[in-house]
Write a structure and sequence with these properties.
- The protein has about 270 residues and is of the alpha/beta class.
- The protein has eight helices and ten strands.
- The strands form two sheets. Strands 6-7-8-3-9-10 form a six-stranded mixed sheet, with helices on both faces. It has a four-stranded antiparallel sheet with strand order 2-1-4-5, with helices on one face.
- A hairpin with a 2-residue loop joins strand 1 and strand 2.
- Helix 3 packs across helix 4.
- It binds adenosine-5'-triphosphate (ATP) and magnesium ion.
- Adenosine-5'-triphosphate binds next to strand 2 and helix 1.
- The site of magnesium ion has 4 residues, from helix 1.
Amino acid sequence: MHEIVIDSTSFTYGSNEVLRDINLTVEAGEFVCLLGPSGCGKSTLLRLLAGLSQPTSGSIALDGSPITGPGLDRGVVFQDYSLFPWMTAGQNVVLALEQAFPGKSKQEYRQTALEYLEMVGLADAFPKLPGQLSGGMRQRAAIARSFAINSPVLLMDEPFGALDAITRARLQDLLLQLWDQREGERKTVIFVTHDVDEALLLANRVVVLGLNPGTIKEIIPVNVPRPRIRKDLYLKEDFLALRERLVSVLHENILSELEAGQTMHAQGDGI
Ligand SMILES: Nc1ncnc2c1ncn2[C@@H]1O[C@H](COP(=O)(O)OP(=O)(O)OP(=O)(O)O)[C@@H](O)[C@H]1O
Ligand SMILES: [Mg+2]
């Protein structure tokens, strides 16, 4: 199970209408990427899914039950990584493990935390405070924490944004591996990115949001067989056509915003 239904969901901060009438069903085991210009409400939508805010109107349900607060059924990587700054990277992962899998020994928690930190290339970071780590390292520690609790739903907000290209590719592969670990029991993933190629590598569907207010502009299915091999994808005509289409949907979005007198920051193909 683990299907998410976002039903006529709107959200406002004071007088700022951030999200308007979002309707989206994410099937159990589906991998959905959210793309859209800065400020269109991607992080806000993830906070709603995480249960940290409530919709102003409409509802969000996980397996038919409204999301009313945070839960261990949803692993979250926020855009600001949100590690506890007074705890080491290792302690941050251990704490999540203690909450997710109560009743194990201290040694087991430490061992598992270390394994997940090693998985993201951070074996040496266990005793370090977040303040002693680079942005990319903090990001990886938060990713290790979200992977360690092995929740059926993963909510990730630009999780690989601060990483170099090689680490990023490694973690994309690791994420797909964890997502696909048990046949028939894939995790349900909602993943925010500004990177068109990342979205097309990972997603079953790409949801493009527009700005002011945030609405769903288009949902693009990515019917590309898996495993998706990076270097092969770009040799295929139908993949290139799909990429072209996604880029043009994003650009149309920006152009219409510019025409409406909004200021935007466009970065290459990403938005
Ligand atoms: N705590 C808050 N109080 C008031 N307004 C907020 C708050 N958080 C976000 N907003 C506003 O909500 C809108 C959407 O913000 P959000 O962070 O969801 O955008 P985003 O799509 O994630 O952008 P980015 O790509 O830059 O991360 C913006 O106009 C922002 O100013
Ligand atoms: Mg954001």
